[in-house]
Amino acid sequence: MTGPPKARESGLTSCLCCHQLVRMPQGEESCRCPRCGARVHTRQVGSLTLTWAFVITGAFLLVPANILPVMTVIYLGAGEPSTIVSGVMQLYDTGLWGIALIVFVASIAVPVMKLVGLVLLLVQIQFRLPLIPLQAMQLYRVVSAIGRWSLLDLFMISILVALVDMGAIAEVAAGPGSTAFATVVVVTMLAARFFDPRLIWDAYDARRGRKGAVEGAVRNG
Amino acid sequence: MQKKPGPWRRACHQCDLLLERAVAPLGQKLVCPRCNATLHRNGAHSIRYTAALSLTGLLLFIPSATLPLLHFSIFTFGAENTLFNGVQSLFGAGYIWLSSLVLFCSVLAPLGKFTLLAFISWGCGWEALDRPVANAVRWYHHLRDWAMLDVYMLGILVALVKMSDLGKMVVEPGLYCFAAMMLVSNLTTLSFDPHAVWARMARRRDRPPAGEAAGDGP
């Protein structure tokens, strides 16, 4: 095997928690890190399956999260439930396009981008498609960094529910869509967490190794 | 080849590349040559800064959790918002899952983060605490992603702007404490370097036990 030295080939694994290099017991795939006590796996167990499961759950939950109302603002007895999209539209119509953009990015663009990004990574690895590892790593890092910002809308709802609570004059109530949306955020964060980026490099090396082997065989034969 | 890996050998946690003699110079960070992952950020005085900052964060937590953050009024009717009463009203309205998520991400996780870091940075001077400190580092690693003070801050700002045409919005002192706590929280995350803790433990283990028994603090 040529190419850069990989820890797995020398029976070593980096502990994901404290980055200690751990020697795997012969023939085993996991052990305890002697330094911090975390479980160390050569590769995260069932990484692809779990990520697929969370991504699919998230994609399904995105439907109720966007169809059902997340919040109702009642002002002087009038007001109707608003969904995530109509909330953004309302902000835009009142001329607050900066805030509208922030909310749009946080609660519509980010969850969709996360799901699309993870599906891209999963498909590339699962079906051994050609991939550019550095690009894939960039995508993985963006996907795992942006996820938390989706909770913006839910924090805002929890603030407004307490703040605007004046009975008949003005009131803000949460809607069932917010529960679905909260679950989408948690599920996509878990999906990004369970995805093991080392699989990207395994797929890349396997592909390159196979191509190299074929070329070698052609040259020899 | 078969010898036990020394402390200078490490593998990139994102691409599994084996690295020899990889140590970041003080004040700089070590980047994986293959995948550009940040392997180690070696800040100066990491443990001291973390000790000071996490205590500051814990102290700031008290006013930001008890004082109101915002005050909103229409005509003579007004209401205040603290870190807890939003969660309370959501819980009262039956949104149990949503309210516990908000509570966890905006109160429990940041509080846990500060407590763990304070424990780690003050406790790593004592040999008797090695095992609990190692566990604390592990818990911190899992908790880190769920503390979302900065997102909550942005949520406050969005709420502030969104409701300002409906009534009168006043910023209360709690919000300043909260903003300071958010800043301190981000600084703490940046300054904390678990490798400094591991290195300190390793140094103590190598030293003969008859040396100094008590820790010298952070």
Keywords:
heterodimer, A: mainly alpha, elongated, B: 218 residues, mainly alpha, Ubiquitin Ligase Nedd4, Chain: W, 3-stranded antiparallel sheet, two-stranded antiparallel sheet, 7 helices, disordered N terminus, disordered C terminus, cell membrane (chain A), PqiA-like (chain A)
Record the SSE blueprint:
The complex is a heterodimer of chains A (221) and B (218).
Chain A lengths: L11 E3 L6 E3 L6 E3 L6 E3 L5 H21 L3 E5 L5 E2 L1 H10 L3 H30 L6 H14 L5 H12 L6 E5 L1 H19 L3 H23 L1
Antiparallel strand pairs in A: 1-2, 3-4, 5-6, 5-7
Chain B lengths: L9 E2 L6 E2 L9 E3 L6 E4 L4 H21 L3 E5 L2 E5 L3 H8 L3 H28 L6 H14 L5 H14 L5 E4 L1 H19 L2 H13 L12
Antiparallel strand pairs in B: 1-2, 3-4, 5-6, 5-7
Helix pairs in contact in B: 1-3, 1-6, 2-3, 3-4
Distance between the termini of chain B: 37 Å
Mean pLDDT score of chain A: 85
Poorly predicted regions of chain B are: 1-8, 211-218
Count of distinct strands of chain B: 7
With strands numbered from the N-terminus, the spatial order across the biggest sheet of chain B is 6-5-7
- How many helices of chain A? The count is 7
Quick one: which chains have the greatest interface? A-B, 66 and 68 residues
Strand content of chain A: 5-15%
- The amount of beta strand of chain B, in percent, is 5-15%
Number of domains of chain B: 2
Arrangement of strands in the largest sheet of chain A: 6-5-7
Shape estimate of chain B? elongated
Cα radius of gyration of chain A in angstroms: 23 Å
Alpha carbon gap, first and last residue of chain A: 20 Å
Alpha-beta content class of chain A: mainly alpha
Individual helix count of chain B: 7
Tell me the overall shape of chain A: elongated
Average residue pLDDT of chain B: 83
Radius of gyration of chain B: 22 Å
Main location (chain A): membrane
Protein name (chain A): Paraquat-inducible protein A
Keywords (chain A): Cell inner membrane, Cell membrane, Membrane, Transmembrane, Transmembrane helix
InterPro entries (chain A): PqiA-like (IPR007498), PqiA-PqiB_transport (IPR051800)
